[in-house]
Design a protein that fits this description.
Layout: H1 2-19, E1 22-27, E2 32-37, E3 41-46, E4 54-58, E5 63-66, H2 93-101, E6 104-112, H3 117-133, E7 136-139, E8 146-153, H4 155-164
Parallel strand pairs: 6-7
Antiparallel strand pairs: 1-2, 1-8, 2-3, 3-4, 4-5, 6-8
């Protein structure tokens, strides 16, 4: 009986994990960049004076900082071998495109100034057209550049798109 309860709880946890929303958020105006599994964990990029990139992993009661470009071990000299490289079974471009198509765009805002008033004037009608059909685009003449992207997905959709895409 206890094994059945453990099995049911385990299956419910897996189903719950597959349905957890994933949010990918980029806001260049407020310098917010994060990937969040809603209710479970958030990985955000933060500014640091000494390192190029500082990632913060935040879970229920746990905060940890990662420095991906920090060298952990001294570099060893590699021995040169005369072996031919074999091709690996990498992920195809079609599968990557299928994974990208599974994301839903919640919000997309682009506000740019190219620095050239003639180019800005040429982009103005194009962006006015795109505002009606795609997302929010704006051309300004105030030297302000801004991008906001908010993407949404679920792990089950990622798995389905990966499996269903043709190689």
């Amino acid at each position: 009986m206890a094994a059945l309860v453990v099995l049911v709880v385990f299956v419910l946890l897996i189903i719950g994990f597959l349905l957890v929303p994933i949010d990918f958020y980029i806001n260049t105006d407020s310098n917010q960049y994060y990937l969040r599994l809603r209710g479970l964990a958030t990985i955000s990029m933060e500014h640091d004076q000494e390192e190029i990139l500082k990632l913060k992993l935040k879970t229920f009661f746990f905060h940890h900082y990662f420095y991906p470009f920090r060298r952990r071990f001294p570099k060893k000299q590699k021995k040169i071998r005369n072996r031919e490289k074999t091709k690996g079974n990498g992920i195809s471009v079609k599968k990557i495109l299928a994974l990208l198509k599974s994301f839903k765009v919640k919000k997309f805002v682009l506000d740019i100034d190219t620095g050239d008033c003639l180019t800005n004037a040429k982009l103005f009608p194009l962006f006015a057209f795109l505002n009606h059909y795609v997302a929010h685009f704006n051309v300004n003449f105030e030297e302000r550049n801004f991008l906001l992207i908010h993407l949404h997905n679920r792990p089950i959709n990622l798995i389905k798109s990966f499996i269903n895409s043709k190689t």
